[in-house]
Request: fold
Amino acid sequence: MLELDGLTVEYGDLTAVDDVSLAVGEGELCCLLGPSGSGKSTVLRAISGFETPAAGRIRIDGVDVTDAPPNERDCSLVFQDWALFPRQTASENVAFGLRMNGVGTAERETRAREMLELVEMEGHGDAYPDQLSGGQKQRVALARSLAVDPDLLLLDEPLSNLDRRLRETMQLELNEIHDRVGTTMLYVTHDQDEAFTLGDRLGVMESGRLVQHDTPEAVYDDPADRFVESFLGTTNFVECTVAEPGPRPRLETPMGVGFEAGIEGSSLAPGDAVVASLRPERLSLSVAPAEETPETTVSDGGESAVAVPARVEETVYRGADLRIRLSAGETTLFVEPSVAGAPPVGAGDAVVVRFRPADALYFDGTGARCR
Reply:
């Protein structure tokens, strides 16, 4: 439905979007995820016709619109700041695009009413923007974009100005609206949780490049490189060195514990740098028994697990879970057990962290995955 082929946008010597190729299927909700300045919003502006590409092609529903003006592209853009007209009512704002397209008054009013009902804003059609809450303004902006029945809806961080609870509510409502109308959507966000909640597929951007594009599950379970792994959420990066190469190379770590990495068929050489990513949810924590010694390997459901002696530095209560900071040799580790499942430990206590090497992800010195 939407195809980007080598899209490049430049501002003088700065390449804001660098050779991005992306396909979004009919009826799909694709999230573009990345830090500020990674080029996400510039991609949207190029698609909608507000930026001129230096190279590449843009196709919407099979039609090349690269050189078409914004009003000749069948897409709508929802802005971060809502961009409602302050002297128009909610209904008039929703009907604005229809009026620009020459739609008659009666049809405009009917369509505006239908769209306000869709976003659960019936009864607010006569209200002006300054009489609406942030969430209500965002609903009106969404209704306005959907009123013209676009082939493609572009959303540029539309929920970022809302408080957390309202943002989470609006995410679920947006999912429901998408399921009902089936409009193809490209949604820009820097919020990982939002992207996982909304996206049928995720595109991760870094420094103008599309680093990975896949389902949320595939991106999380199989990140393309260290940047993707670091951006998706909290993890523990442990700097390691290859001690013994082979199909399951042995790694030495600053935790005071060595282990055989879960890297099948690796071509790593002795002395090579490897970074192991140990996600907090894959780590188990227990009080250290008196006889525990470093580099202990234990059985865990038939698979070997590495036991790392550590000491609690800080425990932070976060409601449903705890964030526990540990020192393990020369490394700091974080674990995040549920409150109900956490062992009774506090600052200064000796503990043991366990993980299975197969649950870790491994990256070489360039940040590429070791597979």
The first helix runs from residue 40 to 48. The two ends are 33 Å apart (CA to CA). The chain has eight helices and 21 strands. The longest strand covers residues 303-317.
